[in-house]
């Protein structure tokens, strides 16, 4: 039997809001799990989380991450990235002291299949909003806080800011916190 460190986290959550649920499976290396096993775990978690992020350290300042929904591997998942990186940085003081952490993801653009419901707080969706606001002259790139949720008393919080980018002019960046709701071992 294989076992992995597992956490169910809510990205962009506060103590009173639900956030955007994702699971994290922490690996010693990407070779310690097969694609069918990744898909099996994601299928077993259907309805519990939207996506599962599988993450392994590949250098002192770098990680590789892959994302699976219950249906298939997806190219990118912003809320899983936020939750996992928030967890890693808060648990490892060495990571917190780094100026930059590299994250190797799949190439391409995430596009959800038809019928796939979006969660209540999305970093990648709000990043697109940030670009739109900047191009229209409605935002100067200083940090802003976006609150989303049907329950206005308990919002999910996404943070946006921008940085100068020599190639593209600006780069909108998003972030937020995460709350670990469940942690333990996942057994296959």
Task: Kindly list the characteristics that best describe this protein.
7-stranded mixed sheet; 4 helices; Diaminopimelate Epimerase, Chain A, domain 1; globular; 2 domains; alpha+beta; 188 residues; 3-stranded antiparallel sheet
List strands and helices in order, with pairings.
Elements lengths: L2 E9 L8 E8 L7 H10 L6 E9 L2 E7 L4 E2 L3 H14 L1 H4 L5 E3 L18 H13 L8 E5 L7 E10 L3 E7 L2 E10 L1
Parallel strand pairs: 2-3, 4-6
Antiparallel strand pairs: 1-2, 1-10, 3-4, 4-5, 7-8, 8-9
Q: Could you give a quick summary of the protein structure above?
A:
Helices cover 22% and strands 37% of the residues. The chain is an alpha+beta fold and 188 residues long.
Walkthrough of the structure:
There is one protein chain. The protein has four helices and ten strands. The chain is 22% helix and 37% strand. It folds into two domains: 3-107 and 177-187, Diaminopimelate Epimerase, Chain A, domain 1, CATH 3.10.310.10; 123-173, no CATH class. The longest helix has 14 residues, at 78-91. The strands form two sheets. Strands 1, 2, 3, 4, 5, 6 and 10 form a seven-stranded mixed sheet that branches. By secondary structure, the protein is of the alpha+beta class.
Average pLDDT figure: 87
Count of discrete domains = 2
First-last Cα distance? 6 Å
Pairing-aware structural class of the strands and helices?
A: alpha+beta
Percent range of helical residues: 10-25%
Number of helices: 4
Looking at the overall shape, the CATH architecture of the largest domain is Roll
Strand content: 35-45%
């Amino acid at each position: 039997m294989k076992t992995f460190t597992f956490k169910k986290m809510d990205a962009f959550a506060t103590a009173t809001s639900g956030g955007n649920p994702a699971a994290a499976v922490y690996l010693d290396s990407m070779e310690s799990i097969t694609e069918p096993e990744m898909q099996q775990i994601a299928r077993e978690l259907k309805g519990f989380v939207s996506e599962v992020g599988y993450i392994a350290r590949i250098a002192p300042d770098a990680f590789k991450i892959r994302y699976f929904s219950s249906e298939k591997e997806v190219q990118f998942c912003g809320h899983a990235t936020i939750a996992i990186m928030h967890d890693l940085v808060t648990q490892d003081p060495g990571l917190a002291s780094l100026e930059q952490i590299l994250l190797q993801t799949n190439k391409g653009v995430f596009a959800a299949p038809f019928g796939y419901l979006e969660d209540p707080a999305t970093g990648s969706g709000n990043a697109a909003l940030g670009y739109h606001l900047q191009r229209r002259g409605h935002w100067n790139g200083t940090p802003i806080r976006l609150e989303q949720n049907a329950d206005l008393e308990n919002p999910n919080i996404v943070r946006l800011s921008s940085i100068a980018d020599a190639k593209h002019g600006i780069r909108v960046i998003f972030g937020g916190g995460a709350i670990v709701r469940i942690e333990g071992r996942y057994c296959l």
